[in-house]
Design a protein that fits this description.
single chain; mainly alpha; 6 helices
Amino acid sequence: MDSNSITNSYKKIPSHLKETGVPLDFKSALTTVPDSFEWAEHDPVDTIGSVPVINLCDPNAKPLIGDACEKWGVFQAMGHGVPMNLLNQIELQTHRLFSLPTHLKLSTLRSPDGIIGYGLPRISCFFPKLMWTESFSIMGSPIDHATQLWPHQPNHQTHFWYLIHIIPYICL
């Protein structure tokens, strides 16, 4: 088994942190889906067409967003004013973050009552089964997390910190 797997890294953390919900280890030698991740089959969702694309500059954007969220649970936003090169940089940093070795991501594991850090999405507690995803929540300055995630790469720390700090100002 990969020594960098979530399973192995998870065994090394204190037991009280295990209650936070660590994402499924897709690199482990699982041959069956754990019960905690196996969702019952449901009737297919009746959706016709594709995910709604909503221009945020449209005067009717608010009701269109509400409708899309009720019917689809998602929508694609356009007209948001965020420059394409910033979106590309954010995508690069997101890929860089989730591609990190498991033990580094677990170094920022969200505490059981916390709202920031690595782990399952916070909405997971509202569902009977765990989600097939991992998340990283940031609030305030991400410099502590960046330092833990890239301990020997100050340029990655700085770039990550800069993007997280500039987004709120670009998106006003």
